[in-house]
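Marked as duplicate of an earlier ticket. Keeping the data here for the record.
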Amino acid sequence: MIAATDADPILLGAVVFLAAAVVVVLIFRRIGMGSVLGYLAAGALIGPYGLGAIGETETVLHVAEFGVVLLLFVIGLELKPARLWRLRSDIFGLGLLQVTVTGAALTVALLAFGQPFDRALLVGLALALSSTAFGVQILREKRDLAAPYGDRAFSILLFQDLAIVPLLALAAFLAPGPGVTENVAVDIVIGLGALVALVLAGRYLVPQLFAFIAREKAHEIFSAAALLVVGGAALAMDAAGLSMALGAFIAGVLMAESSYRHQLETDIEPFRGLLLGLFFMAFGMTVDWAVVLANWWIVLGGAAGLFLLKAVLLYLLSRLFGSGHIDAVRIAATLGQGGEFAFVLLSIAAGSGLLFGTLSSVLSAVITLSMVLTPLAVRFADQAAAQDAGGDEDDEEMEGVDAAKGARVIIAGFGRVGQVVARIMAMRGLDVTLIDNSPRRIRMARSFGTHVYFGDATRLDVMISAGAGEADIIFLCIDDRDGARAAVEKLRERFPQALIIADTYDRFSEIEMRAAGADVVIRETRESAIALAREGLMRIGDAAVVDELVEEYRRRDGERTALEKDMGPKEALEILRAKYALERQG
């Protein structure tokens, strides 16, 4: 018999969370409700107001907040400073208007229901915030973060995150009791100092750390270093009185131009997914079903009213800033819910005496239920977009005149072959992502003005992070016969429709690469060898027959390749070895 240990409750709790997530989330995805809603339902099922399998909701929620921190870091990695500068009018224009106009409207509504002004103001502004984790997760699942409406939605969410600091100050100011305004100037200086220190560290120290790890080929340490950077940035901002999520986001933006961006995103992604799921489950656990049932009409009406009011204002403001009808509908559907930070503000207000009784529980239930409405609203918006897209076929045909101009290309391996391919693609003006696992080649490329990302192209998760799922062409120019073959197999299995063009160095590996699933395989020595032979024949006076000889070689080589396609790779290799043996014997 195995003796019980102190670790048993922790392990048991982890198993309960994982089991609930696997079962419930799969069911919700199967019926088309989305994974986020599944996590909320799983949390409600196992929480203290459900089956009671987990009781420490505050502890779980505190740990799960790191999932939002990791999410913001990954978002920052995808946002280069140039893109942030391009979004500045949406962030500080549309985002500011959304918070102030929605907050004012909700404050007036709460005043109409008899709430005092200070409570109505704080709750109204808290409810004006949308869920960053919820909205961004939906945009990521739909791969719409880079879409026009995704840009606008994210800009609004980013301003809401920036508004967290002044809202915390407002909560402290409105709280009954002595004010805390005497140290505001000191707090501002500390916050600015922390931001400057974070920027300097992200700009100069962190890239050197990752470069050292890459040179040492300590791949298992890379994940630990990535988590250390995110956690350190978050804790530094928290100690300075700022948002942990904001610190992680800034760290991500600073690393967005780094050569290690894709490898960082790959190593962070598994932790982000698990902790973000735990975050949503923790919110599901906070739903007090007794309070909800006792005030069901207030909860239902409040959630529907909150979502409708925010959606209408989001739609109108988005149209004011130039969004089309469908994009405005999608923004409204994605951001109509209440946000996770509202829970933080409500808990502060309850602790300070600004909220009391069942009001805090009712408002928490309203926010949670508004999140439940989001997948339904997003599905409605998608259906409206699909109907509207029916009349765009002529536009798509016109865009096809120069379709290659918008193609996305990934080149894995920046050696002698990859460099030539990259230059030709760049001359065409295509969007090219370059990946290599050699810090030396990355430094050399940067000295010539070429940005190459660090990453192991034989890892499927790295290629996915680099955009393999959306790439029009994937060039594999890896000086690793076994690794290249494995990369082709993984890419072909995950992305059956992908166009994979592979470089290889002899006929044996060419057969293996074709068998692995590459669409086109080019031997890097073939054309240069033909050119050498042709030049030699020209110099000895065989110019009259050189073209005929080259054409005959190409014909025979093509026939051999066609024959090898019709048989298995093992048989083809055996026949090839036999032919080479006969040729050597004369």
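See parent ticket for discussion. DSSP finds 27 helices and six strands in the chain.
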